[in-house]
Design brief:
The protein is α+β, with helices and mostly antiparallel strands. Helix content is about 45%, strand content about 10%. It is globular, with a radius of gyration of 22 Å.
Length: about 500
């Protein structure tokens, strides 16, 4: 009997136990605010958008100049995209002459210390968020933190924490496929690497690149850390994962001890001198998540109530799409995540974890290189061969989704991926590189500026229903009131608040 038929029958039986109509997804989109001249905006978060601390849909990420747009939880792709579109329309209307940068890799940047840290008011919670970001700047540099992306939050009712961790292990094994198909950051502005050692080639004085790169954002120039490279975090169990991150938040790290917690004037330089200040500092392509209660640590929430959803963190902004991602990509992600969930997922090992890191860097920096080989167990396999196998295995999930939802959208997404695999010149990373080279001066910044302006004009020209405008105006007003209430309710001074929040007891049950 054909082993593939056995595997497909087993997969179908597993799928049959779940109601896929209960699948939920949401999107978080980060973007830099820039001037019409493609310079990082130096203005505060627009007052018309309310409080970045308490607004449920519009906040900031690392920088005051880096907005984050957050959809709610949606039962279908169309409604999720519609909300993201509305949030971006509202945001663009509040920006005046500024615009949202359409690429994951940043615009021309000022000196590191001139990149503004996010500000969240005078409450203890707001001050802690800012101090955490100050610490990130000291540890990794502020330029790296201006890299932006799309986070895709996904859940399926009935999946246990054990099931989600199996999904995560398979996701990490197969994430190279997403980097290959959807990576869109093969080039950067030369200011991003000024004064740094890097492997990039000069396209010209304005632009650095790698000829076969897919996602420099996910390579060694992106969200990487030599310190965190010592953390071989395993995803074999919830308890093991939580314990590993809890240890990292207690483990002293000499380079961070040298920075200190405060300077001579008493100003905070970071939250702590441990390897991780807080759990969210751990860089990962996917995270297990649980909605927290007020004042609760994320790891405590996971330990107490288990995994609620996963957060996919490796998607680049697609500069050819108005909101950075399209429906077909989201449907591909749904089928991909189902594949990760319902296929065999053996435990990871330190050896495999190291190999996966090497695979990620290879695909990020050389993914479109003909004949590129990846590590799979003790063997090497061509990226295109492994990718084709995964796409074939995904078909049963795409067909089940189409059967439940009607139409052929998921199979179409799979067919599009197969075509892209056969024609790498059609991939977003290849299209970006060609578009950059087509600029009169070969400038990455000029290309993204043009895309950003076109997207802003297109979105401002689209009507926004009066009830949507009213709803977001009310959300902004309420968020300001909520921030004031938090500030008025504080009873601890900031030092005592931090001691309590960072105490190991806050992570225990």
């Amino acid at each position: 009997m054909n082993p593939g038929m056995d595997r497909n029958a087993s997969t179908a039986a597993g799928l049959a136990q779940f109601d896929l109509t209960g699948m939920r997804r949401g999107v978080e989109k980060e973007s830099l605010r820039v001037t019409a001249e493609s310079v990082l905006a130096a203005t505060p978060h627009p007052a018309a958008l309310g409080s970045a601390l308490t607004h449920p849909r519009i906040t900031t990420d690392f920088s005051e100049s880096q907005v984050e747009l957050i959809t709610g939880v949606h039962p279908d792709v169309a409604s999720c995209l519609e909300e993201l579109n509305q949030i971006q329309q509202v945001t663009l209307r509040a920006l005046g002459n500024e615009m949202l940068w359409a690429s994951s890799m940043p615009c021309g940047l000022p000196s590191d210390d001139a990149i503004p840290i996010g500000q969240y008011g005078s409450s203890n919670d707001g001050r802690a968020k800012s101090v955490y970001r100050v610490g990130l700047g000291h540890r990794y540099g502020r330029r790296m933190q201006t890299i932006s992306g799309i986070h895709y939050n996904w859940s399926l009712p009935g999946v246990s924490s054990e099931g989600y961790f199996g999904l995560i292990r398979n996701f990490r094994r197969h994430a190279f496929l997403l980097l290959y198909l959807f990576g869109a950051s093969p080039a950067v502005c030369s200011t991003f690497v000024a004064g740094r050692k890097h492997p990039l080639q000069a396209l010209n004085q304005y632009t650095m690149y790698l000829p076969y790169a897919t996602s420099l954002r996910m390579g060694r120039l992106g969200y990487q850390s030599d310190a965190q490279a010592t953390l071989a975090v395993s995803y074999n169990s919830l308890s093991g994962y939580v314990d590993a991150l809890a240890r990292a938040m207690r483990q002293p790290y000499p380079a961070y001890e040298a920075i200190g917690v405060r300077n001579a004037d008493g100003q905070y330089l970071q939250l702590a001198t441990s390897l991780l200040q807080i759990e969210n500092e751990f860089y990962a392509s996917i995270r297990p998540k649980r909605v927290t209660q007020p004042g609760e640590r994320p790891l405590h929430a996971l330990r107490a109530r288990g995994v609620e959803y996963v957060e996919v963190r490796l998607m680049d902004l697609d500069p050819f799409e108005p909101v950075g991602i399209n429906a077909q990509t989201m449907r591909f992600l749904d089928a991909f995540l189902l594949h990760c969930l319902f296929t065999s997922s053996p435990p990871d090992t330190p050896t495999e974890i190291a190999a996966l890191a090497r695979n990620q860097h290879l695909v990020a920096e050389r993914g479109r290189e003909p004949g590129l080989l990846l590590e799979r167990g003790e063997a090497q396999v061509a990226l295109t061969e492994w990718a084709a196998e995964l796409l074939e295995e995904m078909e049963v999930f795409a067909r089940r989704l189409d059967a439940d939802q009607g139409g052929t959208h998921h199979i179409d997404a799979l067919l599009s991926a197969r075509q892209a695999l056969a024609h790498p010149d059609t991939l977003p990373s290849a299209r970006v590189l060609e578009a950059v080279k087509a600029q009169p001066n070969g400038s990455f910044v000029a290309f993204v500026r043009g895309q950003s302006k076109a997207i802003k004009q297109q979105m401002l020209a689209s009507a926004l229903a009066p009830e949507v405008e009213q709803r977001f105006a009310a959300l902004a007003q309420r968020s300001v009131q909520d921030q004031r209430a938090l500030e008025a309710a504080d009873t601890l001074d900031f030092d005592d608040y931090l001691r309590a929040y960072l105490s190991p007891d806050s992570l225990a049950l």
